[in-house]
Amino acid sequence: MAEYSYTLTELMAVTAARQIKNGEVVFAGTGLPMLGAMLAQRTHAPDCCIIFEAGTMASRLAHLPMSVGDPRVMRGAATAAGLSEVFTYVLQAGRVDVGFLSGAQIDRYGNINSTSIGADHRHPKVRFPGSGGSGDIACLAQRTAIIALHEKRRFPAKIDYLTSPGWLEGGDSRHEAGLTRGGPHVVVTTKAVMKFKPVSHEMYLESYHPGLTAQQVSDDTGFPLDTQDAIETPIPSQEELRILRDVVDPDRIFLK
């Protein structure tokens, strides 16, 4: 057990940061992805290129922005254009290595629903904002990382509406549907880290967060989850926590 404390948000931000490799192009959204990208740029991936949906590319952030449209995202940017340029010349051109996504429901193949809850999407029980740019990122990034609250209702056997395609029905179904690029790589939740098997593309438990067990994570997931090789999620280092708290988010905008 660590002799120092950390919060769940800090654990998730550090885990998200570790998904980014040096030199990669990262499509980051507001919140945890932004924390993770900034932390990665200040630790193991100083040459990662952060781009934002609002139109900035290769930002060198000094302060944590409140959103992707915050003027602070323009600091040090190689390009400050618009949404169309980012999606056309970077994402569609296949230049995004990792894109961060989220949603209301995620199934065993990493398909995401951020549109509606209910059997009939024309008369939903709950209506969400929809895709935004997530459908494009899910289709066109080289790989995606999904951030989510871990609740059984958020991980159903089948999502109510397909907003952002993952591995579709598993196996080669994504490729057969014409999506020849990318696919979900990892799901970082409030309870665990999950990845996808190389052939079936079914989700499996990579690790469970400290204080939990693999069985507890499985019990809070709405489909069978392979847990046999799961380990405990590596905790943040003291240096990662120092940078996260003192440099990335000293005002505790997202770190609570």
Automatic annotation (TrEMBL):
An example Gene Ontology molecular-function term: CoA-transferase activity
Pfam families the record matches: CoA_trans (PF01144)
InterPro entries assigned to the protein according to its UniProt record, in alphabetical order: CoA_trans_fam_I, NagB/RpiA_transferase-like
Domain of life: Bacteria
Annotated keywords: Transferase
Coiled-coil annotated spans: none
Protein family (similarity comment): Belongs to the 3-oxoacid CoA-transferase subunit B family.
UniProt-listed PANTHER family: ACETATE COA-TRANSFERASE YDIF, CHOLESTEROL RING-CLEAVING HYDROLASE IPDB SUBUNIT
Name of this protein: Ketoacid-CoA transferase
